[in-house]
Amino acid sequence: MVTDGHITEKDCPMLYTLSVAGGKWKWVILFIISEHKVIRYGELKGKLPSIAHKTLSQQLKELESCDIIHREQYNQVPPKVEYSLTARGKTLIPILRLMSQWGKENRDLGEI
Known about the structure:
Blueprint: H1 13-21, H2 26-36, E1 38-40, H3 41-47, H4 53-65, E2 69-74, E3 80-85, H5 87-90, H6 93-106
Antiparallel strand pairs: 1-3, 2-3
């Protein structure tokens, strides 16, 4: 629906996709999870050293709430949590691969 001349997520599939997986970290998080199939929080954090714990936790919660990743918690000491892609999350892999390929082909062409 267009409200006050503005396009909403219901009107634009691109806006919807970005609302689910947009932001600085979500695509990178998804790419790392896809490369490992199942990954523990500490391993994921280790691959993203510049991300704050709070930011990583928030991004993971948002991806889980959209059924993009699955969080498996094991009740043991110390606590163990693993992340994997859901069936819905796996549908984003072709997009991730295209984004990666575009980056390889274009990263040296200009400043960001």
